[in-house]
Design brief:
Blueprint lengths: L1 E7 L4 E7 L4 E9 L6 E6 L5 E4 L5 H12 L15 E6 L10 E2 L2 H9 L8 H14 L5 E5 L9 H4 L5 H7 L8 H15 L7 E7 L3 E7 L2 E5 L22 H9 L3 H10 L2 H6 L5 H9 L3 H24 L5 E5 H6 L1 H9 L20 E2 L8 E4 L4 H13 L1
Parallel strand pairs: 1-6, 6-8, 9-12, 12-14
Antiparallel strand pairs: 1-2, 2-3, 3-4, 4-5, 7-8, 9-10, 10-11, 13-14
Helix pairs in contact: 1-3, 10-11, 11-13
Bound molecules: adenosine-5'-diphosphate.
Length: 396
């Protein structure tokens, strides 16, 4: 089944046309600067990747251009639009309304709107993409796949904050967690690599990218995760602070003469690896800096690895055991240094890393030694494929 996967942001739209039966990516691309001027980068199969300027005053224009590209006789991937059997949309926040992916209808659109106050930057953009596709492909079924849905299995004790309970009841203030599509996909792959039914596994997935979250997956279900009401919580990230003493907000506001928005801007955009190193949010730069003796890069890397390891330890406790740790996403898949630093901190769990295997990157691989009590894997994530698979299951 040919499925178009859409990840729509406020001024960008990423797309992949996936054959969900063969798992092949037939075409992919990115529309940028929508509503500003517009550019589209498109690639069909293993063909050439080309970027062109193209005026896109709104998301309708972007979706229209994507369809033109996908059906183009030279750079396209299908003869005509009727070959695309479904569209799968990434939606950031499903609140408590969505514990799994759903076929989109008017009620679903209203429900996504209702939880938009929980993700004011993302959900409205996701809805714009859904509406544009509905308008231009009215007969094609559309599916919403939520970043939060996988974590809806968390028990109360993991999602209730130590705040007045009315805030949960009245406003839905609780831990939701994100990267759910990735944690779900990677935990399934890890169970397959362990050669065990997922029901019998305890897995910690470390999704380490520009945004990072760790998830405890027991029996195939998320039982705890580091991100919270928003993706700001958990480990320190590329530019996000992760968990800090909440009283720091007031303290900084006074010292730096900032309002709430100003403090939030610091926590979201100027903190984490960028804030600590003063150099970059990119782990490649930090790794290089550390190797060259830059002390602030070393501190950033050590803080990150230490926080990740602390959560792995916490989640081993949360699940009363752990069979495997899976590293995924940009840093988890590619950065041997971080994987080694995390695993060194976890030797008490009986983890030993195979240093040679850990030099590899970007492919499914066991990187712990045969006698390691907990197995450690690299498992590349594939959120687009997971969205396509969910979409196929619902449309069929
Ligand atoms: P996002 O959260 O934006 O999806 P990614 O999962 O793409 O982020 O991860 C981006 C991070 O992955 C960057 O910090 C980058 O340094 C790191 N990364 C990507 N490729 C490599 C690589 N080949 N080697 C080391 N680090 C990498």
């Amino acid at each position: 089944m040919k499925i178009l996967v859409i990840n729509c942001g406020s001024s960008s739209l990423k797309y992949q046309l996936i054959d969900s039966d063969t798992e092949a990516v037939l075409a992919k691309g990115l529309c940028e600067r929508i509503g500003i001027d517009g550019a589209i980068t498109h690639q069909a199969g293993a063909g050439e990747k080309k970027t062109e300027q193209y005026a896109m005053p709104d998301h309708d224009a972007a979706v229209k251009r994507v369809i033109e590209k996908l059906t183009d006789s030279e750079v396209g991937a299908v003869k005509d639009l009727s070959e695309i059997e479904a569209v799968g949309h990434r939606v950031v926040h499903g609140g408590e309304k969505f514990a799994s992916s759903v076929l989109i209808d008017d009620q679903v659109i209203s429900a996504i709107e209702e939880v938009s106050d929980l993700a004011p930057l993302h959900n409205p953009a996701n809805l714009i993409g859904i509406r544009a596709c509905a308008k231009l492909m009215p007969s094609v079924p559309q599916v919403a796949v939520f970043d939060t849905a996988f974590h809806q299995t968390m028990p109360e004790r993991a999602y209730i904050y130590g705040l007045p309970y009315e805030y949960y009841e009245n406003y839905g203030v609780r831990r939701y967690g994100f990267h759910g599509t990735s944690h779900s996909y990677v935990s399934k792959r890890t169970a397959a690599l362990l050669n065990k039914p997922i029901e019998d596994t305890k897995i910690v997935v470390c999704h380490l990218g520009n945004g990072s979250s760790i998830c405890a997956v027991k029996g195939g279900k998320s039982v705890d995760t580091t991100m919270g009401l928003t993706p700001l919580a958990g480990v320190a990230m590329g530019t996000r602070s992760g968990d800090i003493d909440p009283a720091i907000c007031e303290f900084l506001a006074q010292k730096e003469n900032l309002d709430i928005a100003g403090v939030m801007n610091v926590l979201n955009k100027k903190s984490g690896m960028l804030g600590i190193s003063g150099i970059s949010s990119d782990f490649r730069d930090l790794d290089k800096g550390m190797a060259e003796g830059n002390d602030r890069c070393r501190i950033a890397m050590e803080v990150f690895a230490y926080q990740v390891a602390k959560y792995v330890g916490a989640y081993a406790a949360a699940m009363n055991g752990v069979d495997a740790i899976a590293f995924t996403a940009g840093v988890g898949e590619n950065q041997g240094t971080i994987r080694r630093m995390v695993c060194e901190q976890l030797s008490f769990l009986g983890i030993t890393l195979d240093e040679e295997a850990n030099k590899q990157r970007g492919e499914e691989l066991l990187i712990s030694t045969p006698d390691s009590k907990v197995k450690v894997f690299i498992v590349p994530t594939n959120e687009e494929l997971a969205i396509a698979q969910d979409t196929q299951a619902l449309v069929k």
